[in-house]
Structure formats: structure tokens, C-alpha cells
Write a structure and sequence with these properties.
- This protein is mainly α.
- The chain has eleven helices and no strands.
- It has one domain.
- Helix 2 packs across helix 3 and helix 3 runs antiparallel to helix 4.
- The longest helix has 31 residues.
- The protein starts with a helix and ends with a helix.
């Protein structure tokens, strides 16, 4: 419970946390941002890290402070997003037999895996790209791709496209629009709006699932 409260506090005050880290340890921030995006996309047991809000807030704070190289940050975020999905794909290939045999996996909810399978059935291999913009599904899509033995060359193509689009849009939005006076004054609300909009597809899928049941 305490961990959840700390995560909520981090999300609501993400601009203050990132600005404090950048102001005190700008070099360390490169590794922190890389780590958050890499872990959120690459570690299947951590689908709730705030990737969208981190990218948006990072772009806004970096533009505001000017203490970091925005292009270098962008490149590192690209690498983190693409490498994270590739790691997740690899984990999926290793655990594929256990998933297919319906064995219970510690820390991984089969419900999320099934939801992602339905996402794949609807969108095909392009789901790897589209999933970048859907929390939870974003983390499980490369895992399910590995489980289903999608050819890595095919996976990598959509992984790169999705990673470049996701980072560019979220980080770019923060960098170019995050310091508009209205957004600065209502930053927490904007972050909540970003999170809410990101979760809309998840809510829709959930409601459709209830309707089918």
C-alpha cells in the first residue's frame, strides 16, 4: 500500500521530482530517465510505471532548465524504448511454453496476457506499434510477441517504429508545449489528463470484456 501511495505521489508531483534531480544531478538524470523507460517497457512485471507522464514531464523540465542536452536525452529514450521491448520479447520466448500450457507465472497476471492476445487478434503485428500508446498493453505486447514466436525481424520493425513515434510524441509534446503558462500552472492536472487519455483504450477493452461475459 505504501508503495502505491509513493507511486501516486511521484506521478502527481513528477515535475518537481524530475526538476529537483536535474537541478542537483543532471548527469545522473540521463541514467534515471533511461532506466524508467527501459524498465517500464522491458520488465513484464512492472507495467504500471508512468512512462507517458515521465516522457512529457522530462521534455517540459529539460526545455525549462536548459541543463541537459535535449537531443542526447531523446536518443537515449529511443534506445531505452526499443531495447526494453526487445528484452521483453526475449523474456516471452523463454517463458513461452509455460504461458501456452497455462502455468501460473509469479508476478504476471494471465488476465493481462489474454487481454494483450485479443489486442493482437484485432490489430495483427501492428499491435507492437499501436500498443506503445496503451499502458499495461505496452508492457505485455512484446512479451506476447515472444510467446507467440513472432519472427524477430518482423517484431523489430514494428518495435522501432513504435518506439520512435511514442518517445517523439510524448517527449516532444512536453518539450514544445510543457512550458506554456496555462500548462505550467496546472501541470499536475495535465499529467493526470495524459494518464487518463492513455488509459481510455484499456477501459474500453475492459467494458467490452464485461459486455461479452
Amino acid at each position: 500500500m505504501q508503495l502505491i501511495m509513493q507511486l501516486i505521489d511521484f506521478i502527481l508531483n513528477i515535475d518537481k521530482y524530475i526538476e529537483t534531480i536535474i537541478g542537483s544531478y543532471p548527469l545522473l538524470t540521463y541514467f534515471v530517465l533511461f532506466g524508467i523507460i527501459f524498465i517500464e517497457t522491458g520488465v513484464v512485471i512492472l507495467p504500471f510505471l508512468p512512462g507517458d507522464s515521465v516522457l512529457f514531464a522530462a521534455g517540459a523540465i529539460i526545455a525549462k532548465t536548459g541543463l541537459m542536452n535535449p537531443v542526447l536525452v531523446l536518443v537515449l529514450l529511443y534506445i531505452a524504448a526499443i531495447a526494453g521491448d526487445s528484452l521483453n520479447y526475449s523474456i516471452g520466448t523463454r517463458l513461452g511454453k509455460r504461458v501456452e500450457s497455462k502455468q501460473k507465472l509469479k508476478f504476471i497476471k494471465m488476465e493481462y496476457i489474454e487481454r494483450t492476445r485479443h489486442f493482437f487478434d484485432k490489430h495483427g503485428h501492428q499491435a507492437i506499434t499501436i500498443a506503445r500508446f496503451v499502458p499495461i498493453i505496452r508492457t505485455f505486447a512484446p512479451f506476447v510477441a515472444g510467446v507467440s514466436k513472432m519472427k524477430y525481424a518482423e517484431f523489430l520493425k514494428f518495435n522501432i517504429i513504435g518506439g520512435l513515434l511514442w518517445v517523439s510524441i510524448m517527449y516532444g509534446a512536453g518539450f514544445f508545449f510543457g512550458n506554456i503558462s496555462f500548462i505550467k500552472e496546472h501541470f499536475s492536472l495535465i499529467i493526470l489528463a495524459v494518464i487518463f487519455i492513455s488509459f481510455v483504450p484499456v477501459f474500453i477493452a475492459f467494458l467490452k470484456g464485461l459486455k461479452k461475459k
